[in-house]
From TrEMBL:
Name of the protein described by the UniProt record: TetR family transcriptional regulator
Domain of life, source organism: Bacteria
Record's keyword terms, sorted: DNA-binding, Repressor, Transcription, Transcription regulation
Gene3D superfamilies in UniProt: Tetracycline Repressor, domain 2
Lineage: Bacteria, Bacillati, Actinomycetota, Actinomycetes, Micrococcales
Pfam families from the UniProt entry: TetR_C_6, TetR_N
Molecular functions per Gene Ontology: DNA binding
SUPFAM superfamilies associated with the record: Homeodomain-like, Tetracyclin repressor-like, C-terminal domain
Length: 193
């Protein structure tokens, strides 16, 4: 029985670490969020914090996974088609520059197959492409996206656009990322949209 309680405490501590890291990185930025600062914020040593995640890179990948889950639940509504959610998420990203910076930097580093977060980003990308392609086909069936366009190609273009916009926005915060996503959807709109 003690083992079970210990496991539950470990899960709770891990969730506390992720929630705290999400807040600290969103507020202070990736470059200013050290493992020491995150460990101090949750009452652990650096080694104690990394016990839960194995490495700094895996900790930050889990922070991004948590961000994705939070955003998905915050921006998923039954009355809005899935594809329109993306401009709202991108608009929200402008409010959390530290998380955008973390995503851009870690995703670039994780292109190396030997990087600890490579599997996370490969899975995230495949899941995004699969789920958005379904939403794109639904939008085509509803007449919101031109049915003559290839949904898989549109999905990859949307992913590339969103990732590229985030990089450009970090260089020039005057760029309105969501406006560019909205324009993309206007360009691919179906005849009845």
């Amino acid at each position: 029985m003690a083992r079970r309680g210990s496991y539950a405490k470990g899960v709770a501590k891990r969730e506390e670490i992720l929630a705290t890291a999400l807040d600290v990185i969103a507020r202070n930025g990736y470059g200013r969020a050290s493992v020491r600062e995150l460990a101090d914020a949750v009452g652990l040593s650096q080694a104690g914090l990394l016990h839960y995640f194995t490495s700094k890179e895996l900790l930050f990948a889990e922070v991004l996974r948590t961000r994705d889950e939070v955003d998905a639940s915050a921006y998923a509504t039954d009355d809005d088609p899935d594809i329109t959610r993306y401009s709202r998420i991108i608009r929200h990203n402008a409010d959390v520059p530290g998380l955008v910076q973390l995503y851009v930097r870690l995703s670039a580093e994780a292109t190396d197959p030997g990087h600890p977060a490579h599997a996370f980003f490969a899975d995230r990308s495949a899941t995004f492409r699969r789920e958005v392609a379904v939403a794109m086909r639904e939008a085509q069936a509803a007449g919101r996206v031109d049915p003559g366009l290839d949904a898989d190609r549109l999905t990859l273009m949307l992913l590339a656009l969103a990732d590229g916009l985030q990089t450009q926005w970090l260089m020039d915060p005057a760029i309105d990322m969501a406006a560019h996503i909205d324009e993309f959807f206007a360009l691919v709109a179906g005849p009845s949209a």
